[in-house]
Protein backbone atom coordinates (compact mmCIF):
# COMPACT_ATOMS: atom_id res chain seq x y z
CA UNK A 1 0.00 0.00 0.00
CA UNK A 2 2.80 2.43 0.89
CA UNK A 3 4.46 1.91 -2.52
CA UNK A 4 1.27 2.98 -4.28
CA UNK A 5 1.04 6.27 -2.39
CA UNK A 6 3.02 9.51 -2.49
CA UNK A 7 4.18 10.62 0.93
CA UNK A 8 5.23 13.96 2.35
CA UNK A 9 8.91 14.71 2.85
CA UNK A 10 10.48 13.64 6.12
CA UNK A 11 10.39 16.28 8.84
CA UNK A 12 14.19 16.65 8.63
CA UNK A 13 13.79 18.48 5.33
CA UNK A 14 12.16 21.29 7.30
CA UNK A 15 13.81 21.08 10.73
CA UNK A 16 17.41 19.92 10.29
CA UNK A 17 19.94 22.80 10.09
CA UNK A 18 22.32 20.57 8.12
CA UNK A 19 19.68 20.04 5.42
CA UNK A 20 19.07 23.79 5.30
CA UNK A 21 22.80 24.45 4.91
CA UNK A 22 22.91 22.03 1.97
CA UNK A 23 19.96 23.79 0.35
CA UNK A 24 21.65 27.17 0.67
CA UNK A 25 24.91 25.84 -0.78
CA UNK A 26 23.32 24.05 -3.70
CA UNK A 27 19.64 24.59 -4.43
CA UNK A 28 19.27 28.25 -3.45
CA UNK A 29 22.70 29.21 -4.78
CA UNK A 30 22.10 27.63 -8.18
CA UNK A 31 18.58 28.70 -9.08
CA UNK A 32 16.97 31.93 -10.26
CA UNK A 33 15.94 34.22 -7.41
CA UNK A 34 13.99 37.46 -7.59
CA UNK A 35 16.20 40.50 -6.99
CA UNK A 36 14.01 43.56 -7.66
CA UNK A 37 12.18 45.50 -10.33
CA UNK A 38 13.86 47.30 -13.21
CA UNK A 39 11.86 50.44 -12.46
CA UNK A 40 13.95 50.80 -9.29
CA UNK A 41 17.05 51.52 -11.39
CA UNK A 42 15.85 53.72 -14.27
CA UNK A 43 19.00 55.88 -14.63
CA UNK A 44 22.72 55.12 -14.92
CA UNK A 45 24.16 54.83 -11.43
CA UNK A 46 20.86 53.77 -9.82
CA UNK A 47 21.34 50.74 -7.58
CA UNK A 48 19.72 48.60 -4.90
CA UNK A 49 21.11 45.94 -2.58
CA UNK A 50 19.57 42.57 -1.77
CA UNK A 51 20.46 39.11 -0.48
CA UNK A 52 20.32 35.61 -1.97
CA UNK A 53 21.40 32.43 -0.18
CA UNK A 54 23.23 34.45 2.47
CA UNK A 55 25.15 36.49 -0.12
CA UNK A 56 24.98 40.29 -0.11
CA UNK A 57 24.53 41.56 -3.70
CA UNK A 58 23.61 44.71 -5.59
CA UNK A 59 22.09 45.55 -8.96
CA UNK A 60 23.21 48.72 -10.74
CA UNK A 61 22.46 50.31 -14.09
CA UNK A 62 25.54 51.16 -16.11
CA UNK A 63 26.24 54.06 -18.41
CA UNK A 64 25.41 51.74 -21.29
CA UNK A 65 21.98 51.33 -19.62
CA UNK A 66 22.56 47.63 -18.99
CA UNK A 67 21.64 46.35 -15.52
CA UNK A 68 24.36 44.28 -13.86
CA UNK A 69 24.52 42.39 -10.60
CA UNK A 70 27.62 42.11 -8.40
CA UNK A 71 28.64 40.62 -5.09
CA UNK A 72 28.56 43.53 -2.66
CA UNK A 73 32.18 43.29 -1.56
CA UNK A 74 35.34 45.29 -2.24
CA UNK A 75 38.21 43.38 -3.85
CA UNK A 76 40.68 45.05 -1.48
CA UNK A 77 39.85 44.00 2.10
CA UNK A 78 36.27 42.77 1.80
CA UNK A 79 34.31 45.77 3.08
CA UNK A 80 30.74 45.97 1.77
CA UNK A 81 30.42 48.58 -0.94
CA UNK A 82 26.82 49.80 -0.94
CA UNK A 83 23.84 49.96 1.41
CA UNK A 84 20.15 50.23 0.65
CA UNK A 85 19.43 51.96 -2.63
CA UNK A 86 20.35 55.18 -4.36
CA UNK A 87 22.43 56.63 -7.17
CA UNK A 88 26.18 56.92 -7.53
CA UNK A 89 28.57 58.19 -10.22
CA UNK A 90 31.09 55.45 -9.35
CA UNK A 91 31.13 52.72 -6.71
CA UNK A 92 33.37 53.80 -3.83
CA UNK A 93 34.33 51.51 -0.96
CA UNK A 94 33.77 53.39 2.33
CA UNK A 95 36.73 51.64 3.99
CA UNK A 96 39.73 52.74 1.90
CA UNK A 97 38.06 54.56 -1.02
CA UNK A 98 38.86 51.99 -3.66
CA UNK A 99 36.72 53.02 -6.61
CA UNK A 100 35.01 50.97 -9.32
CA UNK A 101 33.23 51.86 -12.54
CA UNK A 102 29.52 51.13 -12.80
CA UNK A 103 30.49 48.16 -14.98
CA UNK A 104 32.63 46.72 -12.15
CA UNK A 105 36.15 47.53 -13.38
CA UNK A 106 38.66 48.95 -10.92
CA UNK A 107 39.14 52.66 -11.41
CA UNK A 108 41.46 53.94 -8.66
CA UNK A 109 42.65 53.50 -5.09
CA UNK A 110 44.67 55.78 -2.83
CA UNK A 111 48.41 55.25 -3.28
CA UNK A 112 48.00 52.12 -5.40
CA UNK A 113 50.30 53.53 -8.09
CA UNK A 114 53.22 53.33 -5.70
CA UNK A 115 52.76 49.58 -5.29
CA UNK A 116 55.21 47.63 -7.44
CA UNK A 117 53.49 45.14 -9.69
CA UNK A 118 50.04 46.53 -8.97
CA UNK A 119 47.82 46.06 -12.05
CA UNK A 120 44.37 47.60 -11.70
CA UNK A 121 43.25 46.12 -15.01
CA UNK A 122 43.20 42.69 -13.35
CA UNK A 123 40.85 43.82 -10.58
CA UNK A 124 37.10 43.77 -11.08
CA UNK A 125 34.02 43.25 -8.97
CA UNK A 126 32.68 39.70 -9.11
CA UNK A 127 29.65 39.70 -11.39
CA UNK A 128 26.53 37.56 -10.86
CA UNK A 129 24.20 36.26 -13.56
CA UNK A 130 21.22 38.61 -13.97
CA UNK A 131 18.20 38.54 -16.28
CA UNK A 132 15.32 40.88 -16.95
CA UNK A 133 12.06 38.89 -16.96
CA UNK A 134 9.30 41.26 -18.11
CA UNK A 135 10.84 44.04 -16.03
CA UNK A 136 11.52 41.81 -13.02
CA UNK A 137 15.21 41.31 -12.29
CA UNK A 138 16.41 37.85 -11.28
CA UNK A 139 19.86 36.73 -10.17
CA UNK A 140 21.58 33.35 -10.10
CA UNK A 141 24.85 32.67 -8.29
CA UNK A 142 25.59 29.81 -10.68
CA UNK A 143 27.60 31.18 -13.61
CA UNK A 144 26.68 28.14 -15.70
CA UNK A 145 22.95 28.23 -15.04
CA UNK A 146 20.55 27.79 -17.94
CA UNK A 147 18.62 30.88 -19.00
CA UNK A 148 15.30 31.63 -17.36
CA UNK A 149 13.34 30.74 -20.49
CA UNK A 150 14.72 27.21 -20.18
CA UNK A 151 13.72 27.00 -16.55
CA UNK A 152 10.31 28.56 -17.14
CA UNK A 153 9.40 27.97 -20.79
CA UNK A 154 6.52 30.03 -22.14
CA UNK A 155 5.84 31.86 -18.88
CA UNK A 156 7.26 35.19 -20.05
CA UNK A 157 4.76 35.31 -22.94
CA UNK A 158 1.86 34.00 -20.84
CA UNK A 159 2.32 36.80 -18.33
CA UNK A 160 2.26 39.31 -21.18
CA UNK A 161 -0.98 37.78 -22.42
CA UNK A 162 -2.70 38.11 -19.04
CA UNK A 163 -1.04 41.42 -18.07
CA UNK A 164 -0.88 43.41 -21.33
CA UNK A 165 0.62 46.48 -19.65
CA UNK A 166 3.40 44.59 -17.89
CA UNK A 167 6.10 46.76 -19.51
CA UNK A 168 4.59 49.87 -17.90
CA UNK A 169 4.23 48.45 -14.41
CA UNK A 170 6.14 49.49 -11.33
CA UNK A 171 5.73 48.59 -7.65
CA UNK A 172 2.96 50.40 -5.81
CA UNK A 173 3.57 48.65 -2.51
CA UNK A 174 5.83 46.01 -0.96
CA UNK A 175 4.57 44.10 2.07
CA UNK A 176 7.11 42.19 4.16
CA UNK A 177 5.78 39.12 5.98
CA UNK A 178 8.08 37.32 8.45
CA UNK A 179 7.11 33.70 9.03
CA UNK A 180 8.38 31.32 11.72
CA UNK A 181 8.66 28.34 9.42
CA UNK A 182 10.92 26.68 6.89
CA UNK A 183 10.67 28.34 3.48
CA UNK A 184 9.39 25.10 1.88
CA UNK A 185 6.47 24.94 4.32
CA UNK A 186 5.37 28.37 3.09
CA UNK A 187 5.94 27.51 -0.57
CA UNK A 188 3.96 24.29 -0.24
CA UNK A 189 1.08 26.10 1.44
CA UNK A 190 1.01 28.53 -1.47
CA UNK A 191 1.15 25.69 -3.98
CA UNK A 192 -2.07 23.89 -3.09
CA UNK A 193 -5.63 25.08 -2.57
CA UNK A 194 -6.85 21.94 -0.82
CA UNK A 195 -6.92 24.12 2.30
CA UNK A 196 -8.56 27.16 0.68
CA UNK A 197 -12.31 26.58 1.15
CA UNK A 198 -11.84 25.83 4.85
CA UNK A 199 -9.27 28.51 5.67
CA UNK A 200 -9.63 31.36 3.13
CA UNK A 201 -13.26 32.45 3.12
CA UNK A 202 -12.65 35.84 1.52
CA UNK A 203 -10.42 34.45 -1.23
CA UNK A 204 -12.71 31.47 -1.88
CA UNK A 205 -16.00 33.36 -1.76
CA UNK A 206 -15.04 36.85 -2.95
CA UNK A 207 -12.22 36.36 -5.48
CA UNK A 208 -12.12 32.86 -7.04
CA UNK A 209 -14.35 29.84 -7.56
CA UNK A 210 -12.63 27.02 -5.68
CA UNK A 211 -14.50 24.36 -7.63
CA UNK A 212 -12.64 25.51 -10.78
CA UNK A 213 -9.21 25.77 -9.11
CA UNK A 214 -6.41 23.59 -10.44
CA UNK A 215 -2.62 23.62 -10.24
CA UNK A 216 -0.50 21.84 -12.84
CA UNK A 217 3.25 21.44 -13.26
CA UNK A 218 4.29 22.38 -16.78
CA UNK A 219 5.65 19.51 -18.85
CA UNK A 220 9.02 21.22 -19.15
CA UNK A 221 10.94 23.37 -16.72
CA UNK A 222 10.11 24.09 -13.10
CA UNK A 223 6.72 25.85 -13.07
CA UNK A 224 3.41 25.31 -11.29
CA UNK A 225 0.56 27.02 -13.11
CA UNK A 226 -2.54 27.90 -11.06
CA UNK A 227 -5.80 28.45 -12.96
CA UNK A 228 -9.34 29.26 -11.86
CA UNK A 229 -12.32 31.46 -12.64
CA UNK A 230 -13.34 34.53 -10.69
CA UNK A 231 -16.41 34.57 -8.49
CA UNK A 232 -19.65 35.99 -9.85
CA UNK A 233 -19.42 39.75 -10.24
CA UNK A 234 -22.01 40.16 -7.48
CA UNK A 235 -19.85 38.17 -5.05
CA UNK A 236 -16.50 39.78 -5.96
CA UNK A 237 -15.00 41.92 -3.22
CA UNK A 238 -13.77 44.45 -5.80
CA UNK A 239 -14.90 45.69 -9.23
CA UNK A 240 -13.38 44.34 -12.43
CA UNK A 241 -13.75 45.36 -16.08
CA UNK A 242 -14.84 42.22 -17.92
CA UNK A 243 -14.21 43.80 -21.33
CA UNK A 244 -10.46 43.17 -20.96
CA UNK A 245 -9.24 39.73 -22.16
CA UNK A 246 -8.81 37.23 -19.29
CA UNK A 247 -10.31 39.69 -16.78
CA UNK A 248 -12.57 36.98 -15.38
CA UNK A 249 -9.70 34.58 -14.67
CA UNK A 250 -7.13 34.08 -11.96
CA UNK A 251 -3.77 32.71 -13.06
CA UNK A 252 -0.56 32.22 -11.15
CA UNK A 253 2.89 31.03 -12.22
CA UNK A 254 5.09 29.68 -9.44
CA UNK A 255 8.72 29.75 -10.59
CA UNK A 256 10.57 27.19 -8.53
CA UNK A 257 12.05 27.54 -6.03
CA UNK A 258 10.89 30.86 -4.57
CA UNK A 259 8.96 33.30 -6.79
CA UNK A 260 5.38 33.56 -7.98
CA UNK A 261 3.56 35.91 -10.33
CA UNK A 262 -0.18 36.20 -9.72
CA UNK A 263 -2.73 37.73 -12.05
CA UNK A 264 -5.84 38.41 -9.99
CA UNK A 265 -9.21 38.80 -11.74
CA UNK A 266 -9.21 42.17 -13.45
CA UNK A 267 -5.64 41.67 -14.75
CA UNK A 268 -4.11 42.79 -11.42
CA UNK A 269 -0.48 41.71 -11.17
CA UNK A 270 0.99 40.91 -7.79
CA UNK A 271 3.94 38.79 -6.73
CA UNK A 272 5.33 36.62 -3.97
CA UNK A 273 8.98 35.99 -3.35
CA UNK A 274 10.44 33.97 -0.51
CA UNK A 275 13.76 34.56 1.25
CA UNK A 276 15.04 31.58 3.26
CA UNK A 277 16.81 32.88 6.37
CA UNK A 278 17.12 30.00 8.83
CA UNK A 279 15.90 26.44 8.92
CA UNK A 280 12.75 27.66 10.68
CA UNK A 281 12.54 31.28 9.49
CA UNK A 282 11.71 32.91 6.18
CA UNK A 283 10.35 36.21 4.91
CA UNK A 284 7.75 36.56 2.19
CA UNK A 285 7.52 39.77 0.17
CA UNK A 286 4.20 40.61 -1.47
CA UNK A 287 4.43 43.08 -4.33
CA UNK A 288 1.52 45.01 -5.86
CA UNK A 289 1.97 46.78 -9.20
CA UNK A 290 0.27 49.53 -11.19
CA UNK A 291 1.12 51.48 -14.32
CA UNK A 292 4.28 53.47 -13.50
CA UNK A 293 3.57 52.75 -9.83
CA UNK A 294 0.79 55.33 -9.84
CA UNK A 295 -1.48 55.51 -6.84
CA UNK A 296 -4.59 53.34 -6.97
CA UNK A 297 -7.10 53.23 -4.16
CA UNK A 298 -8.54 50.02 -5.59
CA UNK A 299 -5.19 48.20 -5.55
CA UNK A 300 -4.36 49.56 -2.09
CA UNK A 301 -7.70 48.25 -0.81
CA UNK A 302 -7.07 44.87 -2.44
CA UNK A 303 -3.63 44.69 -0.83
CA UNK A 304 -5.15 45.52 2.57
CA UNK A 305 -7.84 42.89 2.08
CA UNK A 306 -5.19 40.33 1.16
CA UNK A 307 -2.92 41.03 4.15
CA UNK A 308 -5.82 40.99 6.62
CA UNK A 309 -7.38 37.80 5.29
CA UNK A 310 -5.43 35.33 3.11
CA UNK A 311 -1.94 36.33 4.27
CA UNK A 312 -2.82 36.43 7.98
CA UNK A 313 -4.61 33.11 7.66
CA UNK A 314 -1.63 31.53 5.91
CA UNK A 315 0.86 32.76 8.51
CA UNK A 316 -1.13 31.02 11.21
CA UNK A 317 -1.26 27.81 9.16
CA UNK A 318 2.41 27.58 8.21
CA UNK A 319 3.66 28.38 11.69
CA UNK A 320 1.44 25.64 13.11
CA UNK A 321 2.82 23.20 10.52
CA UNK A 322 6.39 24.10 11.48
CA UNK A 323 5.63 23.42 15.14
CA UNK A 324 4.02 20.13 14.15
CA UNK A 325 7.07 19.07 12.14
CA UNK A 326 9.03 19.21 15.38
CA UNK A 327 6.63 16.87 17.11
CA UNK A 328 7.83 13.38 18.03
CA UNK A 329 4.37 12.20 17.09
CA UNK A 330 4.58 13.22 13.43
CA UNK A 331 5.06 10.69 10.64
CA UNK A 332 4.93 11.81 6.97
CA UNK A 333 1.40 11.19 5.74
CA UNK A 334 0.17 10.26 2.26
CA UNK A 335 -0.61 13.07 -0.15
CA UNK A 336 -4.12 13.32 -1.53
CA UNK A 337 -3.53 12.71 -5.24
CA UNK A 338 -6.75 12.81 -7.24
CA UNK A 339 -6.33 11.43 -10.80
CA UNK A 340 -8.76 14.15 -11.92
CA UNK A 341 -6.61 16.80 -10.16
CA UNK A 342 -8.68 19.84 -9.12
CA UNK A 343 -8.79 21.86 -5.92
CA UNK A 344 -8.92 18.85 -3.58
CA UNK A 345 -5.72 17.29 -4.89
CA UNK A 346 -2.08 17.67 -3.85
CA UNK A 347 -0.40 16.61 -7.09
CA UNK A 348 1.38 19.99 -7.10
CA UNK A 349 2.99 19.15 -3.75
CA UNK A 350 4.19 15.84 -5.18
CA UNK A 351 5.93 17.82 -7.96
CA UNK A 352 7.57 20.17 -5.45
CA UNK A 353 8.81 17.25 -3.38
CA UNK A 354 10.25 15.63 -6.47
CA UNK A 355 12.14 18.80 -7.39
CA UNK A 356 13.51 19.10 -3.85
CA UNK A 357 14.65 15.47 -3.77
CA UNK A 358 16.32 15.81 -7.17
CA UNK A 359 18.14 18.95 -6.10
CA UNK A 360 19.38 17.37 -2.89
CA UNK A 361 20.54 14.20 -4.65
CA UNK A 362 22.85 15.88 -7.12
CA UNK A 363 24.97 18.97 -7.55
CA UNK A 364 24.04 19.45 -11.20
CA UNK A 365 20.76 21.35 -10.82
CA UNK A 366 19.01 21.80 -14.14
CA UNK A 367 15.45 22.67 -15.18
Structural notes for this entry:
The protein folds into 2 domains: 239 residues, Naphthalene 1,2-dioxygenase Alpha Subunit, Chain A, domain 1 (Alpha-Beta Complex), CATH 3.90.380; 108 residues, Rieske [2Fe-2S] iron-sulphur domain (Rieske Iron-sulfur Protein). Helix 5 crosses helix 8. The longest helix has 29 residues. With 367 residues, it is α+β, with helices and mostly antiparallel strands. The chain is 24% helix and 28% strand. The chain has a 7-stranded antiparallel beta sheet with strand order 1-10-9-4-3-2-5, with no helix packed on it. The protein has a 7-stranded antiparallel beta sheet with strand order 11-17-16-15-14-13-12, with helices on both faces. It has a 3-stranded antiparallel beta sheet with strand order 6-7-8, with no helix packed on it. The chain contains 9 helices and 17 strands.
Give the helix level as a range of percent: 10-25%
Mean pLDDT: 93
| C-alpha geometry | globular
Poorly predicted regions are: none
- SSE string: HHEEEEEEEEEEHHEHHHEEEEEEHH
Main β-sheet description: 7 strands, antiparallel
Order of strands, widest sheet:
1-10-9-4-3-2-5
Cα distance spanning the termini:
31 Å
Number of domains: 2
CATH homologous superfamily heading of the largest domain: Naphthalene 1,2-dioxygenase Alpha Subunit, Chain A, domain 1
Helix tally equals 9
Any guess at the CATH architecture of the largest domain? Alpha-Beta Complex
Structural class: alpha+beta
Beta percentage is: 25-35%
DSSP summary, beta strand count:
17
* CATH secondary-structure class of the largest domain: Alpha Beta
